[in-house]
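so i finally got all the pieces together for this one. its two components total, 378 residues if u count the protein bits. some of the lines might not be protein, just check the labels. i wanna see the whole assembly predicted at once instead of chain by chain like last time, that was a mess tbh
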Amino acid sequence: MERGKLIVVSAPSGCGKGTILGEVLKDPKFYFSVSCTTRQPREGEVDGVNYRFITKERFEELIAEGAFLEHAEYVGNYYGTLLAPIEENLAQGKDVLLEIEVKGAEQIRALRPDASLIFIVPPSLETLRERLINRGTEEMDVIEKRVAKAEQEITYRERYDYCLVNDKLEDAVADFLAIVRAIELKVEK
Amino acid sequence: MERGKLIVVSAPSGCGKGTILGEVLKDPKFYFSVSCTTRQPREGEVDGVNYRFITKERFEELIAEGAFLEHAEYVGNYYGTLLAPIEENLAQGKDVLLEIEVKGAEQIRALRPDASLIFIVPPSLETLRERLINRGTEEMDVIEKRVAKAEQEITYRERYDYCLVNDKLEDAVADFLAIVRAIELKVEK
């Protein structure tokens, strides 16, 4: 069986990355690598689906065991990607999707030359601000911080292989799937 | 306006490249670069559509004028790609498709780092032989030469960015369009 592809996805928060991935993951050819985090679940988030929510102590044990492909601290919490489930699924021919913030993606780039990196951006920062307001899960000062952070993160675009604009969901999903198919058809050097 | 992408397509003869491109070119976002050749038209081939059929003398004048992006000799005939129409269409935002044999593609790779290269292969050499027989335009000895040439050309796969297998036409067209979309969304380094 042909080995699957390792695909990293990053996007500033509020870019609709979760919605796009929700659509994409309806295809069973994908395995979504669920990250571990020490942050608190948001409303509606399910352990083992959105993240594996673990304690700081457990996270630090796993670091010590070398169980993470990458890990990073972000806004005071740990986030990390376990290596074993990724390798198992690649070997089974599944395309493995990793959703990782920009610094983690940089680590993957260095560690895994076989990985392809996709960046998702909003049509504009104004659109991003509106989406975060409409999501209604955060106060205005937090939203402004996220928009400022997004503005900075968008400058990381150059470090990715592909970049798609999430304007209309349907188009963004089609673009995402086109990129994945092209990655599958890429000639390995 | 965003500049279009330069896309090179090669395939051993009989791989169905022409049929795939015929489908793909229904989308007006593409400009197909019609090559010049000194070979005789095959039955059904139209001057200015399949090739610009020109004399050896005219071809050599154009070489002297530096009008070609690349040119090559193949089975005793010249084939070449004029530069001016490519630049005009890229500037107008069109994706420019160049259909070029493997040696010409190598020249483009060296001359144009902005080009993406797609290779189309048959599911097997046996399938290729059958297709050439069914096309009915060539004698068996010519077909065997083409199959042998294809076997050798397939080893050029490694020099391309993407490789797709033309098994079912519909899938091959979808794969081709997915690759093109991904090329459009590629981050320029």
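Residues 71 and 174 of chain A are 30 Å apart (CA to CA).
Strands of chain A lie at 6-10, 30-33, 36-37, 52-53, 68-74, 77-82, 95-99, 116-121, 162-165.
anyway lmk what u think
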